[in-house]
Amino acid sequence: MKKNKAIIVLLVMVLLLGGLSYTAVEGIGTEKAGAASGIKLGLDLAGGVSITYQVVGEENPSKEDMADTIYKLQKRVEKYSTEAQVYQEGNDRISIEIPGVSDANAILEELGKPGSLFFLSETDPEGGLNYTATMDENGELVYIMLRDISELQADGSTVLAGTDVKDARAGSINDNMQGSQFGVDLTMTQEGTKKFADATRKAYEKGESIAIYYDNEIISAPMVNAAITDGNAQITGSFTFEEADMLASTIRIGGLKLELEELRSNVVGAQLGSAAISTSLKAAAVGFGLVVIFMIAVYWLMGVAAGLALAIYTAMIVVLLNLFEITLTLPGIAGIILSIGMAVDANVIIFARIREELATGKTVQSAVKIGFEKAFSAILDGNVTTLIAALVLGFIGSGTIKGFAQTLGLGIVVSMFTALVITKSIMKAMYAAGLKKVSLYGIGKESKAIAFLSRRKVFFAVSLAIIAAGFIVMGVNKSSGGSALNYSLEFVGGTSTNVTFNEDMTIEKIDQDIVPSIEAITGDGNVQTQKVAGTNEVIFKTRTLTVAEREQFKDTMVNNFSADAEKITAETISSTISSEMQSDAVVAILVATACMLLYIWFRFKDIRFGASAVLALVHDVLVVLAFYAAAKVSVSSTFIACMLTIVGYSINATIVIFDRIRENMALMGKKDSLEDVVNDSVSKTLSRSIFTSLTTFFMVASLYIFGVTSIREFALPLMVGIVCGTYSSVCITGALWYVFRTKFEKKA
User: Fold this and answer.
1) How far apart are CA 637 and CA 117, in angstroms?
2) Distance from C-alpha of 431 to C-alpha of 139, rounded to nearest angstrom
3) Integer Cα distance of 645 and 337 in angstroms
4) What is the phi-psi region of residue 300: left when phi exceeds 0, alpha when psi lies from -120 to 50, beta otherwise?
5) 674-684 and 637-666 are packed helices; what angle lies between their axes, rounded to 10 degrees?
6) What mean pLDDT, rounded, does the chain reach?
7) Which of 117-131, 257-271, 575-589 shows the highest mean pLDDT?
8) d(CA 271, CA 212)
9) Rounded distance, CA 534 to CA 104, Å?
């Protein structure tokens, strides 16, 4: 690369950073595409719409029916946001909270009224008509019920119920006669398939239609053109896509086990308060600044290149979060933190390799070229392994798991690009521009290998002792009348208290004065607040309060903050993370772990590498779990994101060490022992492990220092996890692989 071209490349990089930064701040065009202000924020950070439904016709619906209805509603509202929450309130009410939206009426209209849905035969068993079709004054076809629905249910004219429908989706349907048109694809349950086969056979033989009855009226009555025996049907007609989508949505929500009616709907503020956003941004800025300063202090000119590349990475992430319409929540921020750590890690791996090459006497140009080539496999394997986990979690997981996976997946792709393309281009341009002195880059110092394996029994014993202590603490917590862990309301439910103040409380007043007063009563830092837009009403969600605590809560609001005593109501609410969502999360994590194991096995040609990595991940999770139990940190929705972040961070660090072991095995001489190879590999990557841990620690520590209580409860175990992940990568994984290698030799 010539000097003039190098200067142009550097100018392009600076302009790229400027352009991305401008886009992130101001956006592009009238719609301000790409602007940070346009990023969808979750309910915890920005608020949204809250809708409460009440069960109709049943005073005490069963737990099973309520759980089934909540789970089905959860799946439906996730089309608005992966972070939408559905939970039980009291005995017969269900609340839905959807972030990133502000028009409750539009949501209600689109979601539909959850009422009873039935499929009706055109005639009764005696041959009499159940309904008839006519034209209204506008020339549109309407259906008139000739008999009451209770009569139709009594004589068997209701051939299917909404619960017999597994799914309904709008789409384009190809018809041989009329070509492509919009319609609705229906999928029946196993029981519904049998009922539908019988009903369509009879209707086809008689040349009749089957009507879809919902909310006291017939919404469609398609003719039956054939007996349908496989449970898959199509409703066609002169639909626009919007009409087909509305019909599909109505059928889906009519398939609920319980009939619901809207009780209230509100636009609500952020659960964590406005302070959560401002403090998170401040923490991100401080953490990023510390990372850049650290990189420059350690790697000199290469650190400058990394700083510029990381700045470009950050601006790209902001723009892409907007363009891909990803809803950002606290777990999503965790995914970005992990991807920033991996972006820094990639640069550290590359720079360490370059310094090693410079130590052998190679020129800067040659060292840069070889350094990137040798670092590529470790960067690729580490990022792909974590990306596989993100993809699996995104497809199988739900709620906060999906949000975490989206930001992590996006961050990994962008971080690989900036490390392997942007950083490389900047460094080549710097060299071509005249910055060729070896002293500007630094030379790796030859150090003796540390005998890590000789202390493996001590490391194993320490880890087992910590894990065992964790289980003992959980047992003690359980036996003392509580639960093993300090579960928050997201897992076990709690109390939702609506307080109407005599004046409009500002967000700052709520965050700084009222919430600390509530925390003093509950002894729990996981208090969620939501301000109802256009009113003086504020909703406070806490762990389940006793009768005495509810009275203390009420007295505090009335005496200290001039609340209206008559307008303070408290309801018991269910967990927002249902048992189905918890099982989805467990399945997603198990599948992700299995996929990572298979990938490591495929790449390293030795399942013992994969087994060692997975055992190290289990170790990290159990150690952090022990910390949660001992410190009684609140286990909230961020708990899952925290654990996933630690797993992703740990697996990446492990891959780097395994990559060096694989490389050294290929160069292994007759005099070299397997123990020497492992010790040398861990020692050569030790600085990388420490430096990457420090940079990631800076980011998380900034969140802890500047964050509000709920963010601190997320950042604290994450810091423990970073330390634990580094320890397991350096002290445990290599030792585990060595034990497996020597105890379970491959057989010819």
Assistant:
1) 34
2) 77
3) 9
4) left
5) 130
6) 82
7) 117-131
8) 40
9) 13
Helix ranges restricted to H, 433-532: 456-479, 489-492, 507-509, 515-522
- Helix and strand totals (H; E) in the chain: 24, 17
Dist. CA 52–CA 266, nearest whole Å:
9
Supply φ then ψ for residue 33, to 5 degrees. Answer: -65, 135
Question: For residues 396 and 405, what is the distance between their CA atoms, to the nearest angstrom?
Answer: 10
d(CA 110, CA 250): 9
CA-to-CA distance for 186 and 167, rounded, in angstroms?
Answer: 6
The rounded distance, in Å, linking the Cα atoms of 544 and 493 is: 7
Q: State the pLDDT confidence band at 656, using cuts at 50, 70 and 90.
A: confident
* Closest to 712 (Cα-Cα) out of 720, 721, 703: 703
Q: pLDDT tens-digit profile of 417-450?
A: 998 889 998 988 888 888 888 888 888 777 788 8
pTM, two decimal places = 0.70
Q: pLDDT per residue over 408-419, tens digit each?
A: 888 888 888 998
Retrieve residue 372's tokens.
């990137």
Tokens of 654: 């492990």
The answer to whether the beta carbons of residues 693 and 580 sit under 8 Å apart is no
Range with the poorest average pLDDT among 253-267, 650-664, 689-703: 253-267
CA-based nearest residue to 118, from 147, 96, 91: 147
In a 13 Å sphere around the CA of 65, the CA atoms on its Cβ side amount to: 17
pLDDT for position 329: 72
Per-residue model confidence as pLDDT tens digits over 179-191? 567 888 888 888 8
Residue, of 582 and 516, whose pLDDT is higher: 516
* 685 contacts 725 by C-beta, under 8 angstroms: no
Non-local CB neighbours of 270 within 8 Å, separated by 6+ positions: 41, 43, 44, 45, 46, 47, 276, 277, 530
CA dihedral 97, 101, 103, 104 (to 10 degrees): -10
- Which amino acid is it at 62? S
Number of other residues whose CB lies within 10 A of the CB of residue 154: 11
Q: How far apart are CA 46 and CA 621, in angstroms?
A: 30
CA distance 393 to 653: 20
576 to each of 94, 497, 529, how far by Cα in Å?
Answer: 11, 16, 15
Phi, psi of 34 (to 5 degrees): 90, -5
In this prediction, residue 76 carries a pLDDT of 73
pLDDT number for residue 265: 76
Q: What percent of the chain has pLDDT over 70?
A: 89
Which residues are 55's β-sheet partners? 260
Q: Averaged over 530-554, what is the pLDDT? A: 86
Provide the residue type at 468 as one letter. A
Q: How many residues does the chain have?
A: 748
Burial class (CB in 10 A: 0-12, 13-18, 19+), 720: buried
Beta bridge partners of 54: 93, 261
Q: Which residue from 484, 560, 492, 576 is spatially nearest to 521, judged by alpha carbons?
A: 560
Q: Which residue has the tokens 């953490």?
A: 287
Angle 84-86-90 from CA coordinates, rounded to 5°? 150
Measured CA to CA, the distance from residue 306 to residue 486 in angstroms comes to 41
Token pair 């060692």: residue: 612
Q: Which of 263, 233, 237, 224 is nearest to 251 (CA)?
A: 233
CA distance 77 to 226: 34
